[in-house]
Amino acid sequence: MKVQALPSVEGNFNLKNYEEAAESFDWSTVEQQFTWSETGKLNLAYEAIDRHVSGDRANKVALYYSDANRDEQYTFEDMKKYSNKAGNILRDAGVKKGDRVFIFMPRSPELYFAVLGAIKIGAIVGPLFEAFMEGAVRDRLEDSDAKVLVTTPALLERVPVGDLPNLESVFIIDESYEENGPYLNFLTRLNGANEDLDIEWVDREDGLILHYTSGSTGKPKGVLHVHNAMLQHYQTAKWVLDLQEDDIYWCTADPGWVTGTSYGIFGPWLVGATNVIRGGRFSPQDWYETLERYKVTVWYSAPTAFRMLMSAGDEVLKKYDLSSLRHLLSVGEPLNPEVVRWGMKVFDLRIHDTWWMTETGAQIICNYPCMEIRPGSMGKPIPGVKAAIIDDQGNELPPNRMGNLAIQKGWPSMMRTVWNNEEKYKSYFEIEGWYVSGDSAYMDEDGYFWFQGRIDDVIMTAGERVGPFEVESKLVEHPAVAEAGVIGKPDPVRGEIIKAFIALRDGYEVSDELQEDIRNFVKKGLAAHAAPREIEFRDKLPKTRSGKIMRRVLKAWELDLPTGDLSTMED
Ligand code: WTA
Question: Does the global pTM surpass 0.80?
């Protein structure tokens, strides 16, 4: 079915004319809105919270938080107070500028106090997704030399504290927790802490946040972002999220992933919006209830979530009053035209696709309210950033030719390094002047970008990025597994699912129990979302002469495609 373009909509938007802005926009105009353009010293958490308290938003609700047990709201003044307190208790534990403070817990108000407090004292925050198991937690704390961790009693079991000599203190979120040695009680200390804090004024290039993310080879890598990224968080919160004074905004992403920080914390609060945070797991009823209850106006979610809502049926949706919604956005995977059509039907609104990555720190290619949408297209680069399709030599390709999706180096929220791995960082910039994303795409005659796929083997399952190498490494730790190769298999709801091909060691027999045991082994060792949903046993896996598993061949087997050049394959 041919998809009709959806016309721009009428309204009073933060971005009124895309073409005009794309032509004339200059990032220095964003900086001039903040006093740090004069002093040169800044702190993102101050700009996101305290600035609004000194202005006229002190009593405006900054955070509506709810989950199965809690139902709370905090004004910007409250957020200032609690983040100051958190900053003080972290500082008392010896945290200094540049130290890594990791936050490993499910969503809760304390998570947000801790993140903001750590940033206020100049620390680099490392958020960890709550589903990570011991192996994944260890890799990240070790690689980053984390000094302090904030976590809950339940998650503490997955932290190998004894093996981490540089981890000096662990804050536990539990009122009745008895302190001993390095284990400190976050809540009692927070209660007793001073409400005033000496903010650490930092340089724009000082470290802000370390997000670990997966590539196709090697362990997860720590992508470092700096305070300067706020320019782009702020400006895209206006242009793309289109946040305005009275908006109630809900971003469904967890802060363990970049969307949950850049657009669950930084963007919305930098522009002084009211932010809804909902804890707990996904269910269609719960999500619709959240939209209705808070009268959410701007909603940022992901294709997998929209597809799950779609498959729950429109009958469920009809029970709720969702008329407050005015602007919908999506990120993380290709947004199918079918989902856009569903959005038009049930919300009478266009879903705006946005493309970006952990490494880009903020949105790059987007659809804007003031612009026509071509369903299936990611949209156009934000003003002030140039994106292009280039070949492997760095030549820009003409319209409608598929190639590497690349961004001209130097946008404000660009990652500044890969922690402990400058070589990896440089590998993104091997083509002079360009950041090469690892995605392939083409651009049409009118400048719209269309996603085609990943060039490497990175898997996007339910919007979460999983490196096949990490899963394979865990699989071969299982006593029955001799060899393992992991691919993303297309799936109508999750985008892709993880499928593992496994060759067993001698003496092991294929069985349902063994399959289940292997799956649980990855669940417990890495994370539930990294466990293969499908496992296929083979006597032997295709390998190169140097012993590398050929995922390309596994994928061809799976999809019934030609296997291509096999000259490097062992006999
Ligand atoms: C994919 C998430 C298609 C892409 C913010 C990218 C997308 C990877 C889109 C980054 C989109 C993100 N359409 N694919 N609109 N947005 N992706 O680092 O392959 O978790 O390289 O960042 O997700 O995933 P990451």
Answer: yes
